[in-house]
Amino acid sequence: MEYIEHGDLSQYIRNYPAKAKAEAKAIILQILEGLEVLHERGICHRDLKPQNVLIASASPIWVKITDFGVSKHAAGKSMQTNCGTFFHRAPEQQGLLPKYLTTRNNYTIAVDLWALGVVAHEVLTTEIPFLESFPVESLQKHGAGAEGIDSVKSLMAVDPAKRPVAKEALKSPWLMGADLSGINSGEPTPPKTTPPKLDDPPTTKPAPPTGSRLLRSQFQHLGVSLSDETADQLFTREDRDEISDTLHSLGDQNIWARTAVSMGYVEVPRVLLRIIDFIDGMDEGMSMLQLAARENQVAVMRLLLNRGANANTPPSIHGRTALQVAAERGHVEGMKLLIDGGLTSLRHSPTMQRRLCRQLQRAGTSRR
């Protein structure tokens, strides 16, 4: 297995937003080239997002698409399986297309182009777009430019038939001007003794945000702007009603919970857990623990287990426990955590203990 030193695109955007924005054209162009190859072979990725784009080289920037766990060989056929990550799923995957569109209950490889549009928005703005309407203002505020906005807008056309195929999208005026100097046909090999310099200036990597700064940063990645004062209040307040009032003023908490869990943003669900109980509640047939297991977000899984999530919850409507979901994806670390959590839940759950006692009593009666 190849070792990827620089992590994934979500980490790159979070740690080096200015550099990611400056390299947006090269990043999106390289992802598009990967999609072109996949689509020519009839393969739909179905879960394209920054976490599934690896930074193979930081200087020059070179990215690779990864995690083909839910990919499908479509060969020109439509698909129906509900998969992918919520904010990167196309409208047709969520049953949101207008009735006059015949594809409203099915989807094609065009969903990958929609997801790429969301990824492009994240690279350019560091935010996930809320899609009541196309987020032109956010792109303009971050200086995306007319060509960049037009390119993202074409990728995120509501009607999948109006989205360009990968080969066509590569010819957009915005991407035609991408600077790929330094990218050659062979794999870049950064010096072993001197790691690639990511920020200039400063020459040293800035300390990652902590506490309320981290909470504010994670909300911003969810498309919600918080002031420093509001972030401090959410991070330090103990009064449940005050926290609830503040969060209610910012939007749909369930959407934040689902997206934050999927993306591994621990501080957001940590705050939400103080006012709402979504641990074992089902969302689209999947509990939050199962969702974290699917995305291999170990830190979130640990938080949920520590806050009382039951690793022994019966299978969802999809017929899989969190452990089975993690096993399907080959997430070894998550599987180990869930096994340990399941044993802990068994030891400390009175319901599970009473159930075992009844089983033992029935077994003893049958022996007589």
From TrEMBL:
<feature type="region of interest" description="Disordered">
    <location>
        <begin position="177"/>
        <end position="213"/>
    </location>
</feature>
<feature type="repeat" description="ANK">
    <location>
        <begin position="318"/>
        <end position="342"/>
    </location>
</feature>
<feature type="repeat" description="ANK">
    <location>
        <begin position="284"/>
        <end position="316"/>
    </location>
</feature>
<dbReference type="InterPro" id="IPR000719">
    <property type="entry name" value="Prot_kinase_dom"/>
</dbReference>
<dbReference type="InterPro" id="IPR036770">
    <property type="entry name" value="Ankyrin_rpt-contain_sf"/>
</dbReference>
<keyword id="KW-0040">ANK repeat</keyword>
<dbReference type="InterPro" id="IPR011009">
    <property type="entry name" value="Kinase-like_dom_sf"/>
</dbReference>
<dbReference type="InterPro" id="IPR008271">
    <property type="entry name" value="Ser/Thr_kinase_AS"/>
</dbReference>
<protein>
    <recommendedName>
        <fullName>Protein kinase domain-containing protein</fullName>
    </recommendedName>
</protein>
<feature type="domain" description="Protein kinase">
    <location>
        <begin position="1"/>
        <end position="175"/>
    </location>
</feature>
<dbReference type="InterPro" id="IPR002110">
    <property type="entry name" value="Ankyrin_rpt"/>
</dbReference>
<dbReference type="Pfam" id="PF12796">
    <property type="entry name" value="Ank_2"/>
</dbReference>
<dbReference type="Pfam" id="PF00069">
    <property type="entry name" value="Pkinase"/>
</dbReference>
